[in-house]
Specification:
The complex is a heterodimer. By secondary structure, chain A is α+β, with helices and mostly antiparallel strands. Chain A is built from 7 helices and 4 strands. In chain B, the strands form 3 sheets. Chain B has a 5-stranded antiparallel sheet, sandwiched between helices. A 5-stranded mixed sheet of chain B has the order 7-9-10-12-11. A two-stranded antiparallel sheet of chain B has the order 6-8.
């Protein structure tokens, strides 16, 4: 996992809580990196899971909620840092379609070693969109948070229904997005 | 846990992260550097390729323009071939197979190009005899060895009719100089050959006529001469001086007429004697001429020593020298004179000069003197037939040479003529 994800996570925690919590959870987890991350570095995604678990323990928030919130926050950061990928797209469905085919392709050019999740998108009807998420890491909650952030950003009235699919390794889930009012 | 401790740990983590970032950045930069090197190499290769490509493009453009020129030249050539209708133009490969067949060939032989091109050899145009005897093969062989050959053949049309063709064949070479075939240009000369034959026939008839006429005319002349002598003898006492004088004049005129008739005979036969060609020493020829003319001691005749020795017909040459020398003696204004003879080597010819110290000729008469029966003085003044120089001109021109005259009044005249070092193959086409 890119160090960017850790640094953004710390920024999120510091902004919503405090740096002393970050210092505390780093101290709790026995991290290989020692909790020092640089955006361009690559670290074990297990460290992220440990940090999230430690934060959950510290704050009594469920892990999935933390990842969901962080996902929403992260989407906002993406929009600020990489507006070239966002502004061109006019709506949620179009943007999500482009994640796999366009954004991830560009990311691979930057980081050859990046391990990216896989999104299989199907536009079922004008108002319904299905996205099957597959990842080597159990971060479905983070993905949901990102989708949610995307909907908020576009200010569209879309509900997300999630169906986890059991797999041996990593995670897989089917997100069905439905535009309300017209369905 | 104090804020200070937290801050310190944070700082430590930040420092560690920064170091990591630097390490990664350096690694990235070195990767980029390598990549840049590779790009530069690739760019270099690309530039070379681009230059090579430009060169190739240029070559192609030149090729295109060349092809365009060739196409243009080819179309010019095509139009020449198509518009040449008098002459047959035929190109062959080395095996004799016909490759090009022009409009002239179609008209002369009756075949259209599609019937013969790449289908037949040149033998199709020749008589079976010429092919069988190897004459056709030898003709091409000569062209192969000497670069060209000329000949006259009986040729066969599509309808099997024959005609006489004057054929000229040249060897074809490609740009590298390799022999690639032959080009044959020929002309139907049946008609001109017919005319030539007619001309030869009428010339023979004319000669025969001249001979018979002169012979027949001479007989009555001799009779007149004899009869006048008898009249004079029989009436020697009865005739007064005036009549005797008239009878003498009559005989003189008769003799002049006999000379004229002989002249016609000589002229018509000039150069027609059997051309016995062998090695001739001009010095001997001149000496023989002097001996036969016998100018006595009054005239001095000098000539270079040595004089050219050449392969020639001796008798015509003697006739030329004899006529020029006796002409100089006959027209000399003094009792004594000098004639000098020189020779010059002018390449394929010798130039002979016969110079006298006689009265000279005015330039206006330079042409007239060579015309038959033309004399500059009246025959009563000087007994001459006006045939000698015309015979000289006729003989020399038949030999392929030419006669000239230069003169200064009061100083003398120089006649010059050229004579080929080796005799022409057909020195008299009408013979």
């Amino acid at each position: 996992m890119k160090g960017f994800m850790f640094n953004q996570f710390f920024d999120y925690v510091e902004q919503t809580m405090s740096y002393s919590i970050i210092d505390k959870i780093i101290g709790k987890c026995n991290l290989e990196s020692g909790g020092a991350y640089t955006s361009i570095g690559t670290y074990s995604s297990q460290e992220m899971l440990s940090l999230v678990a430690a934060l959950s323990e510290e704050t009594n928030q469920p892990v999935h909620q933390i990842l969901l919130n962080y996902g929403e926050y992260l989407f906002g950061i993406f929009c600020k840092k990489y507006p070239q990928f966002i502004q061109e797209k006019s709506n949620v469905f179009q943007f999500l379609s482009s994640v796999e085919t366009y954004i991830h392709t560009e990311v691979k050019k930057f980081y050859k070693d990046a391990q990216l999740p896989h999104f299989a998108c199907t536009q079922v009807s004008p108002d319904q969109f299905i996205m099957v998420y597959t990842s080597s890491r159990p971060l479905t909650d983070l993905a949901e948070g990102l989708i949610s952030g995307c909907i908020k950003y576009h200010q569209e009235d879309i509900t997300i229904s999630r169906e986890d699919i059991a797999v041996k390794h990593g995670a897989k889930a089917k997100f069905t997005l439905t535009r309300k009012g017209r369905a | 846990m104090s804020d200070y401790d937290i801050l310190q740990r944070r700082l430590e983590r930040e420092i560690q992260a920064r170091k990591e970032a630097e390490d990664i950045s350096e690694k990235k930069m070195s990767e980029l550097y390598c990549l840049n090197q590779k790009l530069e190499t690739a760019l270099d290769t690309q530039k070379k390729n681009s230059t090579a490509l430009k060169l190739r493009t240029h070559e192609l453009e030149v090729q295109i323009s060349k092809t365009e020129d060739e196409r243009h030249a080819k179309s010019t050539l095509q139009s020449i071939l198509a518009s040449t209708i008098e002459y047959s133009i035929i190109a062959l490969n080395m095996e004799g197979v016909i490759l090009v067949w022009n409009e002239g060939a179609r008209r002369n032989y009756g075949y259209v190009a599609e019937e013969v091109v790449k289908k037949h050899t040149i033998q199709i145009l020749h008589t079976e005899e010429d092919v069988r005897s190897g004459r056709v093969g030898e003709f091409l062989l000569q062209a192969y060895q000497e670069g060209k050959a000329e000949g006259v053949f009986q040729r066969v049309r599509k309808d099997r009719s024959q005609f006489t063709d004057s054929v000229n064949v040249s060897l074809r070479r490609n740009e590298s100089g390799y022999t690639i075939g032959y080009v044959i240009i020929s002309k139907n000369i049946t008609e001109s050959k017919l005319l030539e034959e007619q001309l030869i026939k009428s010339n023979r008839e004319l000669e025969q006529f001249a001979y018979i006429t002169s012979h027949d005319l001479k007989a009555p002349l001799r009779a007149i001469e004899r009869l006048s002598s008898w009249i004079e003898e029989d009436n020697i006492d009865k005739l007064d001086e005036k009549s005797k004088e008239n009878l003498a004049l009559l005989r003189q005129r008769t003799s002049r007429m006999a000379n004229l008739i002989d002249g016609i005979l000589q002229y018509s036969r000039a150069g027609r004697v059997d051309l016995d060609i062998h090695l001739v020493d001009t010095k001997e020829v001149i000496q023989e001429v002097i001996d036969s003319i016998n100018p006595g001691k009054k005239f001095t005749i000098v000539y270079d020593d040595p004089m050219p020795v050449l392969t020639a017909a001796k008798i015509p040459m003697m006739q030329v020298f004899a006529n020029l020398i006796s002409n100089s003696i006959k027209h000399h204004h003094r009792q004594r004179g000098t004639i000098s003879i020189h020779a010059e080597d002018i390449g394929n010819f010798y130039k002979f000069l016969v110079a006298d110290d006689g009265p000279g000729i005015e330039p206006v008469y330079f042409e007239k003197i060579f015309v038959i029966f033309q004399t500059l003085k009246s025959r009563d003044e000087l007994e001459a037939t006006g045939i000698g120089l015309s015979i000289v001109k006729k003989i020399v021109e038949w030999q392929g040479g030419e006669v000239n005259v230069e003169s200064t009044l009061g100083k003398g005249t120089t006649f010059s003529f050229t004579w080929p070092k080796s005799p022409l193959k057909a020195n008299n086409p009408l013979e």
